[in-house]
UniProtKB/TrEMBL annotation:
The keyword Hydrolase applies. Gene3D superfamilies: SGNH hydrolase. Transmembrane segments: none annotated. It comes from Rhodamnia argentea. Residues 19-65 are annotated as: Disordered. InterPro entries: GDSL, SGNH_hydro_sf, SGNH_plant_lipase-like. This is GDSL esterase/lipase At3g48460. GO terms for molecular function: hydrolase activity, acting on ester bonds. Belongs to the 'GDSL' lipolytic enzyme family.
Amino acid sequence: MDGCDELDSLARFHTRSCHSHGQHYRGGASRKKATPLRLGSFAPRVRAEQRAETKMSPSPSSSSSSSIILTALAVVTLTTLFFFSSPASAAGPQPRPFKKIYAFGDSFTDTGNTRSASGPSGFGHVSNPPYGVTFFHRPTNRYSDGRLVIDFVAQSLSLPFLPPYRSISSSSSSSSSTAAYGVNFAVAGSTAINHEFFVRNNMSLDITPQSILTQLIWFNKYLESHEGCKAATRGGACRDSLEDALVWVGEIGVNDYAYTVGSAVSGDTIRKLAINTVAAFLESLLRRGVKYMVVQGLPVSGCLPLAMYLSPEDDRDDIGCVKSVNDQTRAHNAALLAKISDLRKRFPDSMILYADYWNAYHSVMKNPAKYSFKEPFKACCGAGEPYHFSPIATCGTPTADLCPRPSEYVNWDGVHLTEAMYKVIADMFLKGRFSHPPFSYLLSKKRRGG
């Protein structure tokens, strides 16, 4: 049995158990450790109107002037007619390169699969203001003041925002109609490693039970109920339904490292298990017929206010972030990229793009002013010094306060980012040099039908 088949078997076996667990997240975030922290935890329409009204007495000079004016008007009129009848103007808007997006990941990508009552308890107020204040002007259960990277991806492809899977499964009419353009399966607090691992190692307290395996189960259910593609199918209906879909795998794995802080489980063990699980997950998607896939690496998690708050001050790197954490996520990304390279060889007909979250985020932290950020380390929404973050006064609670200009902050609530930062990261992925190969190449290949 290969990795993909094993993951499929687990998915079928755990379908019920994953849905029966309660929602949890780790507690004890306020503990300070004396040792280095190991946390992995966005042609104008031209209208020409001319009028010529001439009331002149006839004379040779006025007749000559009138002829010149009439000739000029004729040239302008013919040019205007040619412009509006040209093939370029008649072509209309370009067709969408993708008809839908399927997204996976954790709270950096979740557009509403968790709420205050069901999300990670450490950030259990996502349904409260001021979440969503910048763009939606109300909480939408996104862990930010506005849009996430996946929202900017959808907008760049002329697609609507992705509805969360749980709203589709609950038969919301508005969400069901939007689902024609894709679905978001990402869950805040989700892990790469199966939840049972944390239970066996006594690390299940306050942990969200959903993993990337849960998201695979949801994806299989959705394909079967909405696309007529059964989980066991290889090709056929699956390939037809996924031919025009972009699969976006947001970062997944930060929570795996975070949940092991203070335990006897090593970072190396987490990295090996998480990478193998994610690789099997990606292979499962590719075997189902996914042809265009973007996989994000982990960010520089050591730059998050939570990591800074928990770590000793002598554990810092050249940009002022937690060195042990950033070293950990960089090693994780190197292992992930090696797996992606292997999958590219085994699935040459599919395009797998790596979105380099670590170096994109790192570039912003090296020179925040270049991207119009004035505060790279403090949370915009929170309380306390020196990072405007406290685990007992997180964003959305009565004791937390809001910064006056979120667009000047990199971080939103101590872990998650502001809409402004997500927009910068999204542009780096979609238009910049932090996707390999470039996203523009993926689009051109899709338009050519390759």
